[in-house]
Amino acid sequence: xxxxxxxKAGSCYLPKPKNxxxxxxxxxxxxxEVMIAGVADGVGGWAREGIDPGEYARELMAKAxxxxxxxxxxxxLSEAYHGTTSPGASTACIVALHDIPHQKLTAVNVGDSGxxxxxxxxxxxxxxxxxxxxxxxxxxxxxxxxxxDFKKAQVIEVAVEADDIVVLGTDGLFDNVFSQEIEDLIRxxxxxxxxxxxxxxxxxxxxEEYSKRKFKVTPYSEAKSEAVKTSKGGKRDDITVVKKNKKxxxxxxxxxxxxxxYLPKPKKxxxxxxxxxxxxxELMIAGVADGVGGWAKEGIDPGEYARELMERTELVKQQHLEPFVxLSEAYHGATAAGASTACIVALHDTANQKLTVHAVNVGDSGxIILRxxxxxxxxxxxxxxxxxxxxxxxxxxxxxxxxxxxxxxxAVKTGDIVVLGTDGLFDNVFSHEIEDLIRxxKKLIAEPKKLATEIAKMAKGFSKxxxKVTPYSxxxxxxxxxxxxxxxDDITVVVLNIVASDE
Length: 503
Ligand SMILES: [Mn+2]
Prior knowledge:
Blueprint: E1 7-13, E2 26-31, E3 36-42, H1 53-66, H2 73-83, E4 90-98, E5 104-110, E6 114-119, E7 122-126, E8 131-133, E9 136-137, E10 154-159, E11 165-169, H3 171-174, H4 179-188, H5 196-212, H6 219-224, E12 235-241, E13 254-263, E14 275-280, E15 285-291, H7 302-317, H8 323-333, E16 340-348, E17 356-362, E18 366-371, E19 374-378, E20 383-385, E21 388-389, E22 406-411, E23 417-421, H9 423-426, H10 431-440, H11 448-464, H12 471-478, E24 491-500
Antiparallel strand pairs: 1-12, 2-3, 3-4, 4-5, 5-10, 6-7, 6-11, 8-9, 11-12, 13-24, 14-15, 15-16, 16-17, 17-22, 18-19, 18-23, 20-21, 23-24
The structure holds manganese (II) ion (MN).
Manganese (II) ion binds near residues 290, 422 and 424.
Protein name: Protein-serine/threonine phosphatase protein
EC number: 3.1.3.16
Keywords: Hydrolase
């Protein structure tokens, strides 16, 4: 592979003067070689409990550097986070540049650190902050109830070009300096663009200066809605994009054996039903989608968008095995009218031979993981209200923002079985009914195709019952309409067996 991008980075850290904490609460890392950088900001409140707030942030960034075999920021942060042991909590933002298949930047963000992308002197992108309320940001930490679930980490993707400037910083920067002020500085000091170290220092000094001013309007003062602002150390790294690229290698310890079954609900007009799916055993990735039926009223085949979404994954999965990225690319490329739920699951075995399932989920498709006949994981449903699941679509105001896609990561073991399906499965069948089926038909475990067919047939049978209690009837009853029976729908079931690779 040939690189088309490279990174020139510079950084500057100005800790706020404190007696006890000379290193401040921020931490960072930059790796030009693999085009990735990150910042973290320890949650100050821990100082009251005698804990150095910077320690957790520093451990998080040190562990992130160790995880750089992964180049997807979400994976890097996930590994770093799951490896941390220090007390405390921290915000974090990691940014990486990719040039295959497209030049783009991917990032993960938790809390109020962040980054912006400046092109020709103007901001083309600025990350948003995650906070519970003013001054209480989302944070990561191992040892405390106040921290947020890792799954809430925001995943960001931005198309970039050579010569774009990425300014990454903690809230010490973004609370004190508006984007326009950074743009102005870059436009007025064009000679600094080639010297990211100096540019970083200039920006940090500007933030520090503004942090000391009593009457300047700052993002912080606006947020606080007072004309008085705070002082905090500024800090960020600049990544100037020029020319080059990188690749990854992997050795397999896992193998995926897949089987599937699709039983469309009998309809006159839509013989193919509304569901769609793909399975790629070779790359250990599979997905399902379910077109939103309401579009039929507008003369549009609801299955068409779902099918396009799944077909488009073909184009990306050769390059990217992160389900979020695969779905993102498929979604951003899809043009059909309509909307769809989607769930994509991939098996990963690259990170220190830890076996994990990575998944992205939008709406009420989903998956369960079974171990020794017991459900050890079930994905949750995203819905606005009963029967209105989150959905993706390009041409509809009713669809949801892609950033609301749920990211899931679960540790797995060889022998685990993943059952992936649309709501036609999960509305009609309880997890324990799938468990029972597997326990009663152990021979099927080695034959995922047959197992998928059996599960789909069970779902179909239940969908026609009028007096059985089903997940659907329970949800409907909770919505206020006492109900029993199944729900007739298209039923898609994919069974993925995780087995040790003998290669
Ligand atoms: Mn459905």
